[in-house]
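Figure 6 in text form: structure in, sequence out.
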């Protein structure tokens, strides 16, 4: 429950404000200042405990509002001191009172506990977020290390493949040279075969002519022998 609420009113108007002496006697000294507009456009004021700085006096036109803020009273004022122009709009400034100066330490303690709980929850959220980010970072690092190892292995394999490719290119060059040599030898063999074929044809023609001559001579000899045999 918030410790800021409108001040009670009496038949004569606002509750009589306490004196600065009573506040100092209670051990508190406050300087109030507006902290901004709420959703309804009203400007609220809050207390800022200070043990060193005293409340600065205001001009006479602002003194009623100062008394309202210093003594914790609230309510709408009809004077110009309780109104102001904010962003070009005329808004009535409303102050709020504390639920008694004697309850302020307790309320401050409760408020601090609430703030501590909020801060603790925020810290837990931050710690949990940090743990999550650390886990994700570790996962990314592990994945990066795995990819780096895989990349290193691929680089080694790539170098090995390049070496094998160079060896294959050298072997292809050697085989190409051997093919050229074999083609030259084949051309020479074809030329030799052509020469041998020509020579064999010539010799065959010559032998054929010799064979015909021998056949003619053998026929003539056979005829003579037959004639001699008949004569006898």
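Output sequence:
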């Amino acid at each position: 429950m918030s410790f800021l609420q409108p001040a009670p009113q009496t038949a004569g108007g606002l509750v009589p404000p306490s004196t600065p002496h009573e506040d100092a006697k209670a051990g508190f000294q406050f300087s109030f200042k507006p902290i901004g507009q709420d959703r309804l456009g009203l400007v609220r004021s809050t207390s800022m405990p200070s043990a060193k700085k005293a409340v600065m006096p205001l001009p006479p036109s602002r003194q009623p509002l100062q008394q309202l803020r210093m003594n914790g009273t609230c309510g709408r004022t009809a004077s110009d001191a309780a109104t102001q122009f904010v962003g070009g709009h005329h808004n009535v400034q409303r102050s709020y009172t504390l639920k008694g100066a004697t309850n302020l330490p307790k309320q401050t303690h409760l408020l601090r506990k609430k703030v501590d709980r909020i801060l603790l929850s925020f810290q837990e959220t931050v710690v949990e977020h940090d743990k999550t980010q650390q886990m994700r970072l570790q996962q990314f690092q592990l994945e990066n290390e795995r990819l780096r190892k895989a990349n290193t292995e691929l680089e080694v394999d790539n170098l090995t493949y390049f070496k094998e490719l160079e060896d294959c290119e050298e072997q292809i060059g050697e085989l190409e040279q051997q093919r050229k040599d074999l083609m030259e030898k084949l051309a020479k063999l074809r030329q030799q075969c052509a020469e041998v074929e020509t020579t064999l044809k010539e010799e065959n023609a010559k032998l054929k002519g010799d064979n015909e001559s021998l056949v003619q001579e053998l026929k003539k000899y056979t005829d003579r022998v037959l004639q001699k045999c008949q004569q006898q």
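Caption detail: Residues 1-18, 26-55, 62-101 have pLDDT under 50 and may be disordered.
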